[in-house]
């Protein structure tokens, strides 16, 4: 039995925060899920699985109305799922017996680091390093919020200039701080080795790169890509660090094909 089970839409770079950490720490993580639109045909539970044709009728009492990302969809969530996951969202992680739920991708990633701390100190070597790592993770939440709003608006065709501007400002603030940190630290954000701060950064930037696949929507509204062709010149240390991480043996199984696909869309 896996030490941690995660249920989510896939592919999802925020889930990869946990799987990347697991490779460093030797933690057994199981991921279950499917593309976002298919999750309306799944049972949302610790034992998440696709529903059979007749089950949608027999389990109709479990139907709940979806919100973020699946707004208005009929989703089948068990009472046990909602007890463990009070906000009812994915990614949703569970301990061994399914009773303890962990939600929010940074917290799920922290769980992996704590389970495997004896193998690799991803969460820092002392209280000060751990707190500095937390600082980067907290800042990432602000960026992630605007990222989610922006990418969802691009996906459903509701993006407008104010949403674009908020995301642009959020990226500039986030990237500027990371650029400064890397100027002082070298090849990692905290200390002299890879930590949760680096993993979170790589996953969030990879997710934001989905903008490359929505150029047509931006053009229709007279907007430009935030990750424009010269962005690497604006934040050279940030993008050099990202490139190093994508090639790293513990990052590349998840991130490398995903990033390559998005960069191909940008080039097109």
TrEMBL record:
Domain GST C-terminal, chain residue ranges per copy: 126-268
Keywords carried by this UniProt record: Transferase
What does the record give under GO molecular function? transferase activity
SUPFAM superfamilies this protein is in? GST C-terminal domain-like
Name the GO terms of the biological process aspect. Answer: translational elongation
Q: Which residues form the GST N-terminal domain?
A: 2-120
Q: What is this protein called?
A: Glutathione S-transferase
Task: Name the source organism.
Answer: Bradyrhizobium macuxiense
Q: What is the lineage of its organism?
A: Bacteria, Pseudomonadati, Pseudomonadota, Alphaproteobacteria, Hyphomicrobiales
